[in-house]
Design brief:
Layout: H1 11-36, H2 41-60, H3 67-76, H4 85-103, H5 111-121, E1 141-145, E2 151-156, H6 163-180, H7 185-199, H8 206-220, H9 231-237, H10 239-250, H11 261-289, H12 294-306, E3 308-309, H13 311-317, H14 323-335, E4 339-342, E5 349-352
Helix pairs in contact: 1-11, 2-3, 2-4, 2-9, 4-5, 4-8, 6-7, 7-8, 7-11, 10-11, 12-14, 13-14
Amino acid sequence: MDISKKMAFSPEVYQQIMMHLSVVDIFKGNWKVIELQHSKHLKELRKIATIESIGSSTRIEGATLSNSEVEKLLKSVKINRLKTRDEEEVVGYYDVLQIILENYETVSLTENYLHQLHGILLKHSEKDQRHKGRYKNLSNKVVANYPDGTQRTIFKTTEPHLTPAAMQILIAWTNERFKKHDTHPLITIAVFVYEFLSIHPYQDGNGRLSRLLTTLLMMQQDYKFIQYVSFENIIETRKDEYYRALMAGQKNRGKASEQIDKWLLFFMESMVILTQLLNEKYAIYNKLEMGLNVRQQKIITFLNKQKKAQIKDIDEAFPEYSRNTLKKDVALLLHEGIILKTGQGRAVTYHAKL
């Protein structure tokens, strides 16, 4: 498996990738200044990102819990009372994500650590106990799950008997790139994710683990802003593009013609979107700090919990204030770009941006 040959991009693709990398790296430098200020907003941003990441990553694989349901579950969870597969996946994802965020500096990219993280990811799932933390022993495939319950086979994966050797090559290649600094770290991470998904080393949980490993590797390569905004949410919102980008390379898997340019572009574009979203979220917090009154902050908190609401819903939620006053507050929040509006006339709906 010569991974480097898959990275023979055209000049046009190379230029696009370099432009995206420049945007992300400039943001990375600017964000470090914010982190050094120990902004009080960072804790809240990380909490929101954690819930979004867990919700999105499990929904990509077919789970149905909303972000608010994920948050409620994690606040009241008792491990011995998990009732559904969705709940098991959410708690397992949360456990691994917390380990990564709190211990990323000591978690090496090795087979042993990957097995440990995979075991924790599936530890609450009764049906996965036999194969958790072990490479697969049956052939599997990448399947896209859609909200209506339908599935679509995306591509075939590495056969079980070839999996250990393929993973050893991938891990060694990735660590060597990080050590030699001969490839931009984000390109190395993107290639690792593509190869990991192509191998699909475990019987189940590969998609979820690939996204957790993305966070781990980015944290280790000093892209620590990843903890404050959900990469998994970007993947969920671009799910069709995500699968198409993987399929574009996979259709020639194992051939000299296998190229991963579309995947690299998708990955880098997603990183740029991620930085833009984090910029917007942080700007909103700064505006909140600069003088919104208690009533206006209550409206924002309400919308953050509800995700969307009409003026009648806001009016019912705050009977202590007049409808006209609340309308003026909503108009101000719209003008400041803190909330969004969709629809016309009586169908107007307001949405949270955080």
